[in-house]
Design goal:
The complex is a heterodimer. Chain A has helices at about 20-25, 30-40, 40-50, 65-70, 90-100, 100-115, 130-145, 175-180, 210-225, 225-230, 270-275, 310-315, 335-350, 355-375, 380-390, 400-415, 420-430, and strands spanning about 80-85, 120-125, 150, 155-165, 205-210, 230-235, 245, 245-255, 260-265, 285-290, 300, 325-330. Chain A folds into 3 domains: about 20-230, Rossmann fold, CATH 3.40.50; about 245-330, Ubiquitin-like (UB roll) (Roll), CATH 3.10.20.600; about 335-430, Up-down Bundle (de novo design (two linked rop proteins)). In chain A, a hairpin with a 4-residue loop joins strand 3 and strand 4. In chain A, the strands form 3 sheets. Chain A has a 5-stranded mixed sheet with strand order 3-4-2-1-5, sandwiched between helices. In chain A, strands 9-8-12-10-11 form a 5-stranded mixed sheet, with helices on one face. Chain A contains 17 helices and 12 strands. Among the domains of chain B are: about 5-40, no CATH class; about 240-490, Rossmann fold. Chain B contains 14 helices and 23 strands. In chain B, the strands form 7 sheets. Chain B has a 7-stranded mixed sheet with strand order 13-12-20-19-18-14-15, with helices on one face. The longest helix of chain B has 19 residues, at about 255-270. The chains are: A alpha/beta, B alpha+beta. Chains A and B meet through helix 13, helix 14 and helix 15 of A and strand 2 and helix 1 of B. The complex binds flavin mononucleotide (FMN) and iron/sulfur cluster (2 copies). The site of flavin mononucleotide has 25 residues of chain A, from strand 5 and helix 16.
């Protein structure tokens, strides 16, 4: 592992790493040149397919396969680049956009060439002004250098890239919510099918890809699919596309050195904490960790040896790898506080379209407020359990995956820390914890 | 969303394999062999959970909510709901704010179905309503300073399935289960929206559109819905008046009928039929127009038949989904024209008649009205002064009635049975829901009496007669179905024989809804 050489983050420590000249000096824009002069769009899709590159935005869908779903004869195709990065504790897209925006642009160019898109929209998280500024500068530089616009490099390929500032909500990151928001509407996710590849932005076929996913593409072009597949965890059965390539892991929470590191897929949570995060802070012990953004659930200390590849977290009851943003909590953190936070987040961010999600998330948040304030009842845990089992795409009751993300912290906390929850309720509400009758509502803490 | 369980049946083995998760029914294409289960325990549990979620924040203030009794949430709760409450009990609020002149919002009651928002975007096209805030804080609202005041705004109150949007005009006026519904047809313009009038104790409480895909779909405009004050206007004509020695004297109906004959027939018999004008108002029903025309030609076959004044205001207004408010502000020009054409030797329109009055060719007139809005001014009415004889039959006083020798009170469409032909040739039948005002008689009764027919005027029988006598109406021989008959094209886009109700009551009447609820109740015991 020691010999692993970062590629995605190779440039970020250089002075002025965000400028065209620095990027070019490091061999930048060679890949797009190669693609435009020697490869057809179909070749490019095939190459990415062969690399088994999977989406880094959360769902891990094979990128080349997604590109191949576009109708072959569509006159207009749009590329939407998902830079909304709103999963809590995730900041890898931000680093790429702020410190190496040209790498991102090159990935977008190749992606557009492969999918025959002539227009790309980068949907940048509203709270990322620097990223927006850097990308804006980078796009200007590219137009100046003839890398964007009409007939790029004399290849006949046209491409315009537009920046769009996000509408500052978590749900804007969901791909169809993003498309609605881009169209100027509320980010209300659409019912799928039709998937964006068939009917997306402005009712035209659309590819939605994460920034990090696309940043991998130039390297695959330069170094080949085999290089990409030399890293990571191979697939174990034909249905599993495996976990190949480098991945940006974000480490935050109760560690000594929070950071974003590039590693081959499949490193364990413990290694991230110990080697890259500098260990749990203040000499304390770790109690639990979020494996890949709040919506993925919870790992207990015993499960820290889980490899963080696309399949690993699922084996210990988590939702998946998500954004590979690990948040560590030390032994002083109460599970009640964690759960209260998680529930408030999703209640705040639910877009409100689907009743199970809208009401379910706000209900869980109110129940957690009740428990936290010492008025909890054991029955509340039953209700939390039943809500967690009935909201989400998995049971089929909602339009998008936000509700699954809301369900997983509950499922994992109730499954892995039920004893602690019960103890807390009994201790703080000794007189009433067994009560079952509906009670008067507490004066509510505002969500906002 | 209606979530259902789906699966596929294997053709060879007959085995059914189910999809483990629920799917939204309306978004799932069905194929050969698709199995859909709408009532499994899993589906029921989900319906249950959705209800429970909606009711978390719902104030359940049914006792003071106008929607109670016609609320989908109540009905569904009855059928699918939880019997016990697991959620916390919230203090009770009922905050109302007005979103426009006709629309009141009780935000707590909203279930966020967003039908109202879609209506303003897709049907009326003005897009005033929107969702503000997010998640469980979301609410329906308008932009400050931009109230919902389009000419179809009242419809959002109908399509709101709960009591969140209520008609300000109807607010706290009646409990809906006291109302009785009668099918009617709006007379405000020549679109002829199918409507229901909701009445209790001879008082009209509200009007709602009735589904008719051939005329108005589910909608109607605010003018038709709210501007019906003329029906109960205190100045309504309510008794026969005759002018004797320059003073008005009341008269009873049997004498009135004889006086009409004296005034009208005399002109024809003294000067010849063409010198008498009988004016058929476009507010008369087809049956009435038929009886009046028959009466006129029974005096002398060449009596001049005139199509009454056609009120036209502005231009047709077409809304996004196609609903149109017509400039022609009367219900039955088409029908009356056909009858005048059939019976009249030299049919005239209103202006043609005025010209002949001016030249002295017309010496006497029997004018019918029925207009809800002022329809004739003093200058125009003055032209009738040179007539030997003028009989006016109308619902409201007018400059013309003031100049008449004999004034007969008529009734509005709400007070009589009858059929009307709209701009497109669609004939629809309306029923009475209110008793005739004061001492007024149903116009059809008056004409029937003039013809010397015995007994009570029955519009259905007259329509059958009309179908035999006038070929244009031949298709009405068996009566008119709820969605009407197109007499011009000979076929309807949507032939419907079953009765359809309003958005809130797809079943025709309140009473049957109430008895349905009782059935459910007794079956669950
Ligand atoms: C509630 C929700 C929030 C999401 N937020 C993001 C996000 O902030 N950034 C992102 O790239 N993908 C996000 N996704 C995933 C996207 O829907 C989509 O899968 C992804 O953009 C596809 O790109 P990829 O295939 O390159 O990963 C989110 C998904 C959900 C359900
Ligand atoms: S699951 Fe939640 S966030 Fe997603 S569309 Fe439905 S209500 Fe909105
Ligand atoms: S129609 Fe009624 S319940 Fe539905 S969103 Fe509008 S106000 Fe709310």
């Amino acid at each position: 592992m020691a010999e692993f050489e970062p590629v995605l983050l190779a440039n970020i420590h250089k002075p002025d790493s965000h400028t065209l000249s620095v990027y070019r000096a490091a061999g930048g824009y060679a890949a797009i040149k190669k693609v435009l002069s020697t490869m057809s769009p179909v070749d490019t899709v095939e190459l990415v397919k062969a690399s088994n590159l999977r989406g880094r935005g959360g769902a891990g869908f094979p990128c080349g396969l997604k590109w191949s779903f576009l109708p072959k004869d569509a006159p207009t195709v749009y590329m939407c680049v998902n830079a909304d990065e709103s999963e809590p504790a995730t900041f890898n897209n931000r680093i790429l956009m702020e410190l190496d925006p040209h790498q991102v642009l090159e990935g977008i160019m190749i992606g557009c060439y492969a999918t025959r898109a002539q227009t790309a929209y980068i949907y940048v998280r509203c709270e990322y002004p620097t990223a927006y500024k850097r990308l804006h500068q980078a796009i200007q530089e590219c137009y100046g250098a003839g890398l964007l616009g009409k007939n790029i490099n004399g290849s006949g390929f046209n491409l315009d890239i537009y920046l769009h500032r996000g509408a500052a909500a978590y749900i804007c990151g969901e791909e169809t919510g993003l498309i609605e928001s881009l169209e100027g509407k509320r980010a209300w996710p659409r019912i799928k099918p039709p998937f964006p590849a068939i009917e997306g932005a402005f009712r035209k076929p659309t590819v939605v890809n994460n920034i990090e996913t696309l940043a991998n593409v130039p390297h695959i072009v330069n170094r080949g699919a085999d290089w990409f597949k030399s890293m990571g965890v191979p697939s174990t059965n034909p249905k599993d596309p495996g976990s190949y390539g480098p991945k940006l892991y974000c480490i935050s929470g109760h560690v000594n050195t929070p950071c974003c590191v590039e590693l081959p897929l499949g490193v364990t949570c413990r290694e991230l904490i110990e080697r890259h995060g500098g260990g749990v802070w203040k000499g304390r012990k770790g109690k639990m960790a979020i494996p890949g953004g709040m919506s993925m659930g919870l790992l207990t200390e015993k499960e820290f040896d889980t490899p963080l590849d696309f399949a690993g977290p699922g084996k210990v009851g988590c939702l998946g790898l998500g954004t590979a943003a690990v948040t560590v909590m030390d032994e002083t953190v109460s599970i009640v506080d964690y759960l209260n936070n998680a529930c408030r987040f999703f209640a705040h961010e639910s877009c409100g379209q689907c009743t199970p999600c809208r009401e379910g998330t706000s209900w869980t948040s109110r129940l957690m407020t009740r428990i936290l304030s010492g008025k909890g009842r054991l029955k509340d845990l039953e209700i939390l359990q039943s809500i967690s089992q009935s909201i989400g795409i998995m049971p089929g009751t909602t339009i998008c995956g936000l509700a699954d993300g809301a369900a997983w912290p509950l499922k994992n906390a109730l499954g892995k820390f039920r004893g602690e929850l019960e103890e807390y309720i009994k201790k703080t509400n000794p007189g009433g914890y067994q009560q079952e009758e509906p009670a008067m509502a507490l004066v509510e803490l505002a969500h906002h | 969303m209606c979530l259902v369980e789906t699966g596929t049946k294997n053709k060879e083995t007959g085995e059914i394999s189910m999809v483990p998760k629920l799917v939204p029914a309306c978004q799932t294409p069905a194929k050969d062999g698709t199995v859909v289960v709408t009532n499994s325990p899993k589906v029921k549990a989900n319906q249950n959970f959705v209800q429970e979620g909606i009711l978390l924040d719902h104030p359940v203030d049914c006792p003071i909510c106008d929607q109670a009794g016609e609320c989908w949430l109540q009905d569904y709760y009855f059928e699918f709901g939880h019997q016990e409450r697991r959620a916390d009990i919230h203090p009770f609020t009922s905050k109302r704010r007005e979103l426009g002149p006709h629309v009141s919002l009780f935000a707590d009651r909203c279930v966020m179905c967003s039908r109202c928002v879609r209506f303003t975007r897709e049907v009326s096209g003005e897009g005033e309503l929107m969702v503000i805030d997010r998640g469980s804080h979301a609410e329906i609202d308008v932009f400050p300073g931009f109230p919902i005041e389009n000419k179809m705004s009242g419809n959002v109150n109908d399509i709101c399935p709960v009591g969140a949007l209520c008609s300000t005009d109807f607010l706290y006026e009646q409990r809906v289960w006291f109302l009785e519904a009668q099918n009617s047809v709006c007379t405000k313009c020549s679109t002829g929206c199918a409507t229901q009038m909701h009445v209790n104790h001879n008082q009209l409480y509200r009007i709602q559109p009735r589904f008719n895909p051939n005329a108005n779909d589910w909608w109607m405009c605010d003018a038709g819905r709210y501007e019906n004050q003329f029906v109960t206007a205190p100045e309504r004509l309510d008794g026969v008046m005759i002018r004797r020695n320059n003073a008005w004297e009341p008269l009873d109906w049997p004498h009135a009928i004889r006086e009409v004959y004296n005034h009208v027939a005399d002109v024809a018999l003294n000067h010849g039929g063409s010198h008498l004008a009988v004016v058929l108002s476009p507010f008369l029903s087809c049956e009435e127009a038929y009886l009046l025309a028959s009466y006129a030609v029974s005096i002398l076959s060449d009596v001049t038949l005139v199509v009454g004044k056609i009120p036209v205001v502005g231009q047709d207004e077409k809304f996004k989904a196609g609903f149109t408010i017509r400039a022609e502000k009367c219900p039955n020009r088409r029908g009356v024209e056909e009858i005048v054409k059939h019976f009249g030797k030299q049919p005239l329109d209103w202006d043609g008649m005025l010209a002949k009055i001016a030249t002295g060719e017309i010496k006497g007139a029997y004018v019918t009205g029925g207009y809800g809005d002022p329809w004739i001014d003093d200058a125009e009415a003055a032209k009738f002064e040179r007539l030997e004889s003028l009989v006016v039959q109308d619902i409201l006083p007018s400059p013309l009635a003031r100049r008449a020798k004999l004034v007969l009170p008529g009734v509005t469409a709400f007070e009589k049975d009858g059929s009307y032909v709209n701009h497109a040739g669609l004939i629809q039948s309306a029923s009475w829901g209110l008793r005739p005002h004061g001492g007024a008689h149903v116009d059809g009764q008056t004409f029937s009496d003039l013809l010397g027919r015995r007994g009570i005027y029955n519009a259905a029988d007259v329509l059958k007669e009309l179908a035999v006598k006038v070929p244009f109406f031949a298709r009405c021989a068996e009566g008119v179905p709820p969605a009407g008959l197109n007499l011009v094209t000979g076929q309807e886009k949507h032939p419907l024989t079953t009765e359809l109700g309003t958005v809130t009551h797809p079943t025709p009447t309140f009473r049957s809804e109430a008895s349905r609820m009782l059935e459910v109740e007794s079956s669950t015991r």
